[in-house]
TrEMBL record:
The chain crosses the membrane at residues 47-69, 90-109, 129-148. This is S-adenosylmethionine transporter. It comes from Populus trichocarpa. InterPro entries: MCP, MCP_dom_sf, MCP_transmembrane. The lineage of its organism: Eukaryota, Viridiplantae, Streptophyta, Embryophyta, Tracheophyta. Its main location: membrane.
């Protein structure tokens, strides 16, 4: 949801430090902006550590909760023509997938958080959206090194090609070599980089705007609701990319498709343009609920970690949003 981030919240009070001039500026800027108070020192290692812990926790929770929906989505996308969808073994491949989701989510958020905060300190306030988009893409590239092999094994187990993760790894290596774990890597990046960038940008911008309007910090249900909206919207937009990624990843050594362009043209020619929207219902549902859980757990974990810092490090720093 993948997977696969940011600034660690350092505020512990329920009221943000906003003043009248800042609120007035919000009406004239195209993107939500952030209070330009004096920044605290940039603590890269702390931000990285807290991002890794928060990201790993959120990734494992959401993947475990929503894995059956992801399995149905994958089977819908992999089925050709009027093929029937099996509803057995909806948790097939979960254990092996969690072994990849945990480090991938941790790496994504661990890279996203310091990248986002550094960019927010560099860019003007009215370009905060650009900082969020860029940080999401950078985090996605880093996490893809783990996400893609995990996704390949998971989806082939979900479609019944293998019965266990060890068997999947062994047979992929023997038949396709190491490069088999990166089948569909280009299409994965084509889907996940825009997805990560757009989802986190929408989420972060909505949080900033909501905080400014409400003149207070968001609570857990509000973070979850914004995460659900950002996830569902982004999931719907990127469904065609997800279909192509799935077809390329599950084809195995058959090499039915020669690449992304050939895959798109073949699917459209043989099954019609609507085939590119296969699984959109389960995908939007899965990512919408997943966004709610992921961002809810992420913000809660970040807040708990912030509360464990020394008192001197717990002063609010609005530019870290």
């Amino acid at each position: 949801m993948g997977p696969l981030t940011l600034a660690v919240d350092t505020k512990t009070s329920s009221k943000p430090h906003l003043d009248a001039p800042i609120l007035k500026m919000q009406k004239t800027k195209p993107f939500a902006s952030i209070n330009a108070q004096e920044d605290s020192p940039f603590d890269f290692l702390r931000i990285l550590f807290e991002g890794v812990i928060a990201g790993g926790t959120a990734g494992v929770v959401v993947e475990t909760a929503l894995y059956p929906i992801d399995t149905i989505k994958t089977r819908l996308q992999a089925a050709r023509g009027g093929g029937k969808i099996m509803l057995k073994g909806l948790y097939s491949g979960l254990a092996g997938n969690l072994a990849g989701v945990l480090p991938a989510s941790a790496l994504f958020v661990g890279v996203y958080e310091p990248t986002k905060q550094k960019l927010l300190k560099t860019f003007p306030e009215n370009l905060s959206a650009v900082a969020h988009l860029t940080a999401g893409a950078v985090g996605g590239i880093a996490a893809s090194l783990i996400r893609v092999p995990t996704e390949v094994v998971k989806q082939r187990m979900q479609t019944g090609q293998f019965t266990s993760a060890p068997d999947a790894v062994r047979l992929i290596v023997s038949k396709e070599g190491f490069k088999g774990f990166y089948a569909g890597y280009g299409s994965f990046l084509l889907r996940d980089l825009p997805f990560d960038a757009i989802q986190f940008c929408i989420y972060e911008q909505l949080r900033i705007g909501y905080r400014v309007a409400a003149q207070r910090e968001l609570n857990d249900p509000e973070n979850a609701a914004i995460g659900a909206f950002a996830g569902a919207l982004t999931g719907a937009i990127t469904t065609p990319l997800d279909v192509i990624k799935t077809r390329l990843m599950v084809q195995g050594s058959a090499n039915q498709y020669k690449g992304i362009v050939d895959c798109v043209s073949t699917v459209v020619r043989e099954e019609g343009p609507t085939a590119l929207l296969k699984g959109i219902g389960p995908r939007v549902l899965w990512i919408g609920i997943g966004g709610s859980i992921f961002f809810g757990v992420l913000e809660r974990t970040k807040r708990l970690l912030a509360q464990r810092r020394p008192i001197s490090d717990q002063q609010p720093n609005p530019k870290q949003d």
